[in-house]
Amino acid sequence: MQSRACHIKSLFAGVLLSALASLSVAGAADCLDVHGALQQGGLIWGRVPPGASVTLGDETLDVLEGGTFVAGLGRDAPATVELVVQGNSLCRTILSVAARDYDIQRVEGVPQRTVTPSPDHQARIARESKRVAAAKDRKLKRPDLLLPALDRFIWPVTGRISGVYGSQRIYNGVPRSPHYGVDVAVPTGTVVRAPAAGVVTLAETDLFYSGGTIILDHGYQLSSSFLHLSKVRVEVGDEIKPGDVIGEVGATGRATGPHLDWRMSWRSHRIDPQLLVPPMPAAKTVPDPEKG
Fold this sequence. Notes:
CATH class of the largest domain: Mainly Beta
Radius of gyration: 23 Å
Mean pLDDT: 85
Number of strands: 20
Strand content: 25-35%
CATH architecture of the largest domain: Distorted Sandwich
Structural class: alpha+beta
Number of domains: 2
Order of helices and strands: HHEEEEEEEEHHHEEEEEEEEEEEE
Oligomer: single chain
C-alpha cells in the first residue's frame, strides 16, 4: 500500500513538473517582448509587466518604471542564455545567441619594445584605466536619455569603415586585446556628433592608448566612447542631445592615422555600435556650427 502511494505521489510530481515546464514555454511569448540583435556583441531590450524582476544568465537587470529592460551580449557570449522574468508568475525562456566570425591576424617578428609598454607607461596606463572604469561605472538612472536612444542611434561621423568590432591581432604568438569598436577613417578635424543623448562622464585630451577621449553615458550603464580625438569640445557633466558636436577626429594616442574609434559598453560587456545604427550612408560634408 505504501509503495503504491509513493508511486502515485511520484507520478503526480512528474506530471506537475511537466505541466509547469509547458506553461513556462507557452507563456514565454506573453511575458517577454525582446528586441535588438541576438548575436555576440548585440544589445537587446524589451518590456515586462511593471514591477517584474528580470535576470539574464547570472545578471540581474535594471527594469525601468514602465517595464523596459536593457542588456548587452559580449564578444564571446555563449550560444544560449536564459532569460527569467519573475512577476505575478514565473517565465523562463532560452535565448539563442548567434556566433560571429572575427578577423584574426597573426603578425610575427615585431620588436618586443613596440608591443610591450615600458614600466613607466604601464603605470600611466593603469592610472588612466581606473579613470575610464570609474566613468563607465556611473549608475545614471535616466530613462529620459535611454528610452529615446533605443533603436535610434545615428553615426557620429560618416566615411569609410576601416576597422570592425571583434577583430584581433596576435603579435609574436601573443594575443592582444580584441578591437571593441568600429573605426571610421575621415580627415583630422571632422566634427564628431553624439549618436544619442547622454551625459559626459569623461573628457580627456591625452590618454596613452586612446589620446583625446570622451565617454558619453546614455543611462543604466550603457555608454559610448570616442577615441583618438584631436579636439574635445565638451566637459564632464555636460548634457548632450543627439547630433550635438562633441569633438573632432584626430590621430592621437596609439593611432596610425586619423579616424574615429567609436566603442560602446553595457556594464562590463563590450557591444558592437554597428549593430545599433543603419548602414553607413554616403559621406557628406556637414557644416560645423562653431566654424561657419
